[in-house]
Protein backbone atom coordinates (compact mmCIF):
# COMPACT_ATOMS: atom_id res chain seq x y z
CA UNK A 1 0.00 0.00 0.00
CA UNK A 2 1.38 3.43 -0.95
CA UNK A 3 1.73 6.58 1.12
CA UNK A 4 -1.80 7.63 0.31
CA UNK A 5 -3.06 4.34 1.71
CA UNK A 6 -1.46 5.16 5.05
CA UNK A 7 -3.21 8.53 5.34
CA UNK A 8 -5.94 8.16 7.94
CA UNK A 9 -9.02 10.18 8.81
CA UNK A 10 -10.12 11.36 12.23
CA UNK A 11 -11.76 7.95 12.85
CA UNK A 12 -8.58 6.10 11.89
CA UNK A 13 -9.95 4.75 8.61
CA UNK A 14 -7.83 4.91 5.41
CA UNK A 15 -8.75 7.82 3.15
CA UNK A 16 -7.42 6.34 -0.07
CA UNK A 17 -6.76 2.85 -1.24
CA UNK A 18 -4.19 2.06 -3.88
CA UNK A 19 -4.35 -1.14 -5.81
CA UNK A 20 -1.54 -3.64 -6.03
CA UNK A 21 0.81 -3.51 -8.96
CA UNK A 22 -1.15 -3.74 -12.17
CA UNK A 23 -4.46 -2.73 -10.58
CA UNK A 24 -6.06 0.65 -10.86
CA UNK A 25 -8.43 2.00 -8.27
CA UNK A 26 -9.63 5.53 -8.14
CA UNK A 27 -11.55 7.28 -5.41
CA UNK A 28 -15.30 7.53 -5.53
CA UNK A 29 -17.29 10.41 -4.09
CA UNK A 30 -18.82 8.18 -1.41
CA UNK A 31 -15.44 7.11 0.01
CA UNK A 32 -13.28 10.17 -0.60
CA UNK A 33 -12.41 10.91 3.01
CA UNK A 34 -13.67 14.50 2.90
CA UNK A 35 -16.00 13.92 5.84
CA UNK A 36 -13.55 11.73 7.76
CA UNK A 37 -10.78 14.34 7.65
CA UNK A 38 -12.45 17.76 7.82
CA UNK A 39 -9.16 19.68 7.54
CA UNK A 40 -7.96 17.72 4.50
CA UNK A 41 -7.98 19.86 1.36
CA UNK A 42 -9.05 17.61 -1.45
CA UNK A 43 -8.61 18.51 -5.12
CA UNK A 44 -10.61 16.28 -7.43
CA UNK A 45 -8.83 16.02 -10.78
CA UNK A 46 -10.78 15.95 -14.04
CA UNK A 47 -13.83 17.19 -12.10
CA UNK A 48 -14.37 13.60 -11.00
CA UNK A 49 -14.93 12.38 -14.55
CA UNK A 50 -17.17 10.49 -15.25
CA UNK A 51 -18.94 10.83 -11.88
CA UNK A 52 -19.29 14.59 -12.30
CA UNK A 53 -22.47 15.06 -10.31
CA UNK A 54 -21.34 12.89 -7.41
CA UNK A 55 -18.10 14.87 -6.99
CA UNK A 56 -19.97 18.14 -7.50
CA UNK A 57 -22.18 17.10 -4.58
CA UNK A 58 -19.09 16.35 -2.52
CA UNK A 59 -17.74 19.85 -3.20
CA UNK A 60 -21.11 21.33 -2.24
CA UNK A 61 -21.12 19.43 1.07
CA UNK A 62 -17.51 20.08 2.09
CA UNK A 63 -15.93 23.52 1.80
CA UNK A 64 -12.39 22.15 1.59
CA UNK A 65 -13.10 20.20 -1.63
CA UNK A 66 -12.02 21.71 -4.95
CA UNK A 67 -12.66 20.51 -8.50
CA UNK A 68 -10.08 20.96 -11.24
CA UNK A 69 -10.94 21.34 -14.92
CA UNK A 70 -8.27 19.07 -16.39
CA UNK A 71 -9.67 17.84 -19.73
CA UNK A 72 -13.21 18.87 -18.73
CA UNK A 73 -15.31 20.60 -21.38
CA UNK A 74 -12.77 19.92 -24.15
CA UNK A 75 -13.86 18.39 -27.43
CA UNK A 76 -11.77 15.36 -26.47
CA UNK A 77 -13.63 14.52 -23.25
CA UNK A 78 -17.00 15.84 -24.37
CA UNK A 79 -16.88 13.22 -27.12
CA UNK A 80 -16.90 10.28 -24.72
CA UNK A 81 -17.65 11.64 -21.22
CA UNK A 82 -19.62 14.87 -21.63
CA UNK A 83 -20.31 17.04 -18.62
CA UNK A 84 -24.10 17.11 -18.17
CA UNK A 85 -25.60 20.55 -18.82
CA UNK A 86 -28.21 20.36 -16.04
CA UNK A 87 -25.72 20.86 -13.14
CA UNK A 88 -23.86 23.80 -14.77
CA UNK A 89 -25.54 26.34 -12.42
CA UNK A 90 -24.40 24.27 -9.42
CA UNK A 91 -20.87 24.24 -10.80
CA UNK A 92 -20.93 28.01 -11.34
CA UNK A 93 -22.08 28.50 -7.73
CA UNK A 94 -18.83 26.93 -6.50
CA UNK A 95 -16.95 29.94 -7.90
CA UNK A 96 -13.27 29.96 -6.94
CA UNK A 97 -13.44 26.36 -5.74
CA UNK A 98 -13.24 25.29 -9.39
CA UNK A 99 -9.56 25.33 -10.34
CA UNK A 100 -7.88 25.37 -13.72
CA UNK A 101 -6.32 21.99 -14.29
CA UNK A 102 -4.14 20.76 -17.13
CA UNK A 103 -2.20 17.66 -18.06
CA UNK A 104 0.20 19.86 -20.06
CA UNK A 105 2.37 18.90 -21.88
CA UNK A 106 0.66 15.52 -22.29
CA UNK A 107 -2.49 16.70 -24.05
CA UNK A 108 -4.43 15.19 -26.96
CA UNK A 109 -5.37 18.74 -28.08
CA UNK A 110 -3.72 22.19 -28.23
CA UNK A 111 -3.07 23.79 -24.82
CA UNK A 112 -5.10 26.87 -25.77
CA UNK A 113 -8.16 24.65 -26.21
CA UNK A 114 -7.91 23.58 -22.54
CA UNK A 115 -7.83 27.24 -21.50
CA UNK A 116 -10.89 28.18 -23.55
CA UNK A 117 -12.95 25.02 -23.00
CA UNK A 118 -14.55 26.08 -19.66
CA UNK A 119 -15.69 29.33 -21.31
CA UNK A 120 -17.36 27.41 -24.13
CA UNK A 121 -19.75 25.61 -21.78
CA UNK A 122 -21.31 28.83 -20.36
Automatic annotation (TrEMBL):
Region (Disordered): 14-35
Record-annotated Amidohydrolase-related domain positions: 15-116
Domain of life: Bacteria
SUPFAM superfamilies on file: Metallo-dependent hydrolases
Pfam family, one: Amidohydro_2
Compositional bias ranges of the Basic residues kind: 18-28
InterPro entries tied to this protein: Amidohydro-rel (IPR006680), Metal_Hydrolase (IPR032466)
Name by which UniProt lists this protein: Amidohydrolase family protein
Source organism (scientific name): Streptomyces gottesmaniae
Amino acid sequence: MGVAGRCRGSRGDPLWYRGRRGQTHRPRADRSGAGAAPRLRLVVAHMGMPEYEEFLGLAERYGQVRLDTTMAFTDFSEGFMPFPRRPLPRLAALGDRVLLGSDFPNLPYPYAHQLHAPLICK
